[in-house]
Amino acid sequence: DAYQRPDAPAVEAFRAAHADAIEFQAWLQFELAEQLARAAAAGRDAGLAIGIYQDLAVGSSDDSADTWMAPALFAEGVSVGAPPDAYAPEGQDWGFPPLDPHRSRGDGHRFFAALLRASFASAGALRIDHSMGLARLFWIPRGRPGSEGTYVAYPAAELLGVLALESRRAGALVIAEDLGTVPEGFRPLLREWGLLSSSVLHFERDAGTPRASHAISDQALASVDTHDMPPLA
């Protein structure tokens, strides 16, 4: 319990006692950032117009640096997931706490802006995992099945505004992963804000028949697969 807040006296004592180990971890992060920046520059020099395409996860685990540094911004006693559907009949519990939309707004969405700024640092394009979370997230009481969760609304216009500002600052495009249970009106909202949607070969079918290319939106990133699907073969 003594280490649950970064400004706690026990944390300060730990910092003093383990300064070399902490500095080593900070140096590793610095090196990773430097190497990623060099990889991005090498890609641009080689003629890649966009460069590196990175991913922003939908959330942070409850034992992460994010939740430790800003515990007041996260909701307690719930985790994020998805309701039952054909893909997961029991629903999905992803096991991490959601940002509280009221607390985030009270903070001026500064945490979200800082997260985006770090993600855009070496990215020519950024994929927003489960982009529907900009408008709503499925909250599940801890220890309960996904079927007992409910949707909680988020201030989409405010969050999209922060995303637009940071993407313009970085000169990077944004891809919204809009797969799964998508709320009505969400895809037109993405188009309005200039985000690309996601088009995945496996899902682009009508009654089992693959759709023709002209039926796919030209405002989409087309891919064969996603990170959580079986390989094409």
Core attributes:
globular; four-stranded antiparallel sheet; 233 residues; three-stranded parallel sheet; 7 helices; 35% helix; alpha/beta; 11 strands
- Percent helix among the residues? 25-40%
Radius of gyration: 20 Å
Instruction: Give the uncertain stretches in residue-range form.
Output: none
* Structural class by helix and strand composition: alpha/beta
- Give the distance, in angstroms, between the N- and C-terminal Cα atoms: 49 Å
Sketch the topology as an H/E string, one letter per element: HHEHEEHHEEEHEHEEEE
SS strand fraction: 15-25%
Helical element count? 7
**Structural shape:** globular
- The average pLDDT score comes to 94
Strands, total number? 11
Strand order of the largest sheet: 3-2-5-6
How would you sum up the major sheet?
Answer: 4 strands, antiparallel
